[in-house]
Amino acid sequence: MGKAWKFEDNLNTDEIIPARYNITIIPQELAKNVFCEIKPEYAKNVQPGDVIIGGQNFGCGSSREHAPIALGAAGVQPGDRIAGWLPNIPESVIAMLAATSLGAIWSSCSPDFGAQGVMDRFGQIEPKILFAADGYLYNGKEIDLLPRLRQIAFRIPSLEHVVVTPYRRQMPDLDGVRKGILWSRFIATQWTVLSTQNTPPEGYKTPGEGYRRTPPHGFAPTPAGSAMRTPVHGVKAMTPIPAPVAEPPDPKTIAFERFPFDHPVYIMYSSGTTGLPKCMVHSAGGTLLQHLKELILHTDLKREDCIFYYTTCGWMMWNWLVSSLAVGVKIVLYDGAPLAPKADILWDMADQEGITVFGTSAKYLALLEKAGVEPRKTHKLTRLKAILSTGSPLAHNSFDYVYKKVKTDVHLASISGGSDIISCFVLGNPIMPVYRGEIQTAGLGMAVDVFDDRGRPVRLIPGELVCTRPFPSMPVAFWDDPDGSKYRAAYFDYYPGVWRHGDWAEITRHRGYIIYGRSDATLNPGGVRIGTAEIYRQVEMLPEVLESVAVGQEISSDTPGDVRIVLFVKLQPGLTLDEALKERIISQLRENTTPLHVPRKIIQVEDIPRTISGKISELAVREVIHGRPVKNTEALANPQSLEFYERLPQLRD
Q1: Which of 11, 135, 244, 412 could make a disulfide contact with 325, Cβ separation 3.0–4.6 Å?
Q2: Out of 95-99, 129-133, 209-213, least confident range
Q3: CA–CA distance from 552 to each of 64, 427, 534, 566 (Å)?
């Protein structure tokens, strides 16, 4: 292909600006050459200065300037895994950029994972360094991560450093954290390793000692790090980064190596609700190319824009958001609850920071509508030009809500893809009409189609979402899958040679797309497949219903595999499911869908299980009501909610 690509091509950094609401603004200058050949402009442009989040000074200062050098001094080499268990804060972006600038592979998950959930992921990839925080804030509460971090550090023997960012306290107690060290001390310690081997130029400032003027001796080679335990298919062995000789590690002069297009940059994870999460290895070139296409062409992102996506570091939308730096825009990081301390806090932020592209989830928009929030009346939103929604299908009424209650002249783009491809199969188009209930178009260059069970393309009826040709952001491999058997089984066994994504979808007469839910969670009453989103869309239009989950309960009948639909509903606080509300739910479904969509049982529950990324887990509920064990409750954000579905007397008749 001629020129080799790097994930860091076109991303740059300068500074991180303090902001309110536990948010951090990363300005346009942060995209000044950090992703451009991995040149020394990273350290050059990340100037010393404190980071303030929620009014608290975290003082990572010059550590931003020296993070890549510190990792190199710690022996990080191409192919090493660097893990992040962090809130959505600047240090997450800094650590990722520093790691990938050296050819290491970054992998992160959200701090709301339990210790076992983190182990299920990072334990498989054996990281050399773990970046973590001492805690995080959510819904006004401080969550202490140190007890879990002690377990994790002890149980991952490959860790050589556990670098802790102070979040709750300036000086957290790291006693018992194996290999634990504060972020600032890690930077200073690694710099000391280098500075005792050589003398920086007169007046050169180091993070640990200010301006050095005492000459030490020599410069030792950086020790080689461990290579991949299981090499990724198609990835060539990398020559270790040569240690600097004679001259000190000046960020203005450090040379960075280029790597092949398919050199790994990220390891992403499946939800893990049916077993140990799959570890999907994504390439630098494919990720960057795909993200730039989606950001610039499908989202109309320009240098003067300011983009925000409500996400954690464990969701692929975080990786997608950070790639916006390649466009040269300002990005907004938000750490906290989306509806607390008040329901419209994100819209306050949008006004204050001049957000032009606002990314969120379908569930957030639905809850805003239920709460009666009308940003159009209370906020200016003068710069807002696009609202993106993902995570689950966007209901028809949510389209109406956005255009009536949020802003009339905005591009509402429902998008859908996943961690499997670290991007989208179907998403928005800024020059096409928006039709309620539909995703506008397939991604440019993506041979997206919908197949029936026999592998034939279908239109205007639901089927399996597929991609019939290769695309840049396919995983280059699964981790620890040397013969590729797990990879093939995940995507290519159902339709040989065709990527089956696992979504139940339909192509509309407008050539748009409707996603009805996961195909493995579709309902099959009387042998007819029904997407769960078709039910949720109608039921959650009722003001009493906050959210719902529908599953199929296995029954004995003349139709093999027949089920009856059981609908569980979570109602507004203080409400009880009575016969009148049941009848309204049934009428809503019967009048707007088909008789097959009407549940045989409707049961009120206090909570609905969701994955860490916020998606309803129909599979977990289905297993519980049949008395079968849920294989991996660590993948759930609220595993205690499963208790509400155990041994229900209503399901015995």
Answers
A1: 11
A2: 209-213
A3: 51, 30, 14, 6
Neighbours of 518 (CB within 10 A): 21
- What's the Cα-to-Cα distance from 563 to each of 19, 484, 526, 644, 651, rounded to whole Å? 52, 35, 7, 21, 12
State the Cα–Cα distance between residues 109 and 87, nearest whole angstrom: 9
| CATH for the stretch 279-518 | 3.40.50.12780
pLDDT of res. 43: 24
Average pLDDT over residues 547-573: 85
- Contact by Cβ (8 Å): 383, 347: no
Describe the crossing of helices 579-592 and 532-539 by its angle, rounded to 10 degrees: 120
Tell me which residue of 544, 534, 543 sits closest to 576, measured CA to CA.
Answer: 544
Residue 590 vs residues 195, 525, 583: alpha-carbon distances, Å: 74, 15, 10
Distance CA 395, CA 414 (A): 10
- Its pTM stands at 0.80
- What distance in Å separates the CA atoms of residue 80 and residue 105, rounded to the nearest whole number? 6
Which tokens hold the place of 342?
């008040």
Give the best-scoring range by mean pLDDT among 183-197, 311-325, 628-642. Answer: 311-325
User: What pLDDT, in 10s, does the model give residues 181-196?
Assistant: 999 899 888 877 777 7
**157 token code pair:** 């023997």
| Alpha carbon distance 22, 593 (integer Å) | 43
Asked if residues 602 and 577 have their Cβ atoms less than 8 Å apart, the reply is yes
Does the domain at residues 34-258 carry the CATH identifier 3.40.50.980? yes
Map 275-294 to HEC letters: CCCCEEEEEHHHHHHHHHHH
- The rounded distance, in Å, linking the Cα atoms of 181 and 169 is 14
pLDDT per position as a tens digit, 464-487: 999 999 999 999 999 999 999 999
Instruction: Give me the mean pLDDT over the 212-241 stretch.
Output: 37
Alpha helices (runs of H) in 256-407, residue ranges in sequence order: 284-292, 316-322, 345-353, 362-370, 375-378, 396-401
Distance between CA atoms of residues 470 and 441, nearest Å: 18
Q: 42 near 254, Cβ under 8 Å?
A: no
Contact indicator for 101, 254 with CB cutoff of 8 Å: no
Domain locations along the chain: 34-258, 279-518, 522-651
Q: Report the C-alpha gap between 529 and 358 in whole angstroms.
A: 34
Averaged pLDDT of the chain: 82
Q: At 193, which helix (H) or strand (E)?
A: helix 183-195
First to last CA, the chain: 64
Who contacts 233 (Cβ-Cβ below 8 Å, separation ≥6)?
Answer: 476, 477, 484
Question: Residue 237's pLDDT band (boundaries 50, 70, 90)?
Answer: very low
Q: Which residue has the higher pLDDT, 359 or 33?
A: 359
| Residue indicated by tokens 């609401």 | 21
- Which residue(s) pair with 550 in the sheet? 567
Class of domain 522-651 (CATH, top level): alpha beta
Establish how many alpha carbons lie within 13 A of residue 369's alpha carbon, considering only the half-sphere containing its beta carbon: 26
Handedness of CA 291, 296, 300, 304 (dihedral sign): positive
- Residue 467 near residue 501 (C-beta atoms within 8 A): yes
pLDDT value at residue 338: 92
Say whether 279-518 and 34-258 share the same fold. yes
